[in-house]
Amino acid sequence: ARKRLKPLRTVVAWRGRAEWDQVMVGLYCGDSRLQQEALDRVSAWKSRYGPKMPLAVDCTAELIRCKVLDSSGRLKSHELILSYGLALCRFVNLITERKQKMVSIPLRQLAREVDIPIWVVDLRHELTHGKLPRLALCRRGCDVVLEWLRKTYWSRQLGNNLCEESEDEEQEEVEANAELDSDVWE
Questions:
Q1: What is the pTM of this model?
Q2: Domain tally for the chain?
């Protein structure tokens, strides 16, 4: 007689789809108070899940935390640049790290493979190795990366439709990224 095997269970830090959806909506809603509540929930997930926390969740939380701090008015411009800068550098490094093989592959190539705009990689390079960019560019980078995370990770996890945009909005985004890719540093 064969023993029936129970299906393997996947343990996650969130209680279920409703909690996941609530956190995703909270993070992306634009209301600082609701964003802070969602950040608190992500911190709880992280304490439960530890190093198994999905990179995209961690990166999203770091970037949203920067936006919450920015809207609070408590930090000076230079401090905000450093805060955004760290979050953006971590995002590019962590997301592209998984695609690195035994041989070092340029970040620009890896970014292209996962559809991260090249100018975001250039921004990361400037933050890491060059002169600190303007706060407006860091904010723009944060917005672009958060949108990338929403489309490529959050909305796909449980089949959410939060990333549905009109074709006009999508075309505007493509054009804006092309402008930034062409020569953002001049």
A1: 0.79
A2: 1
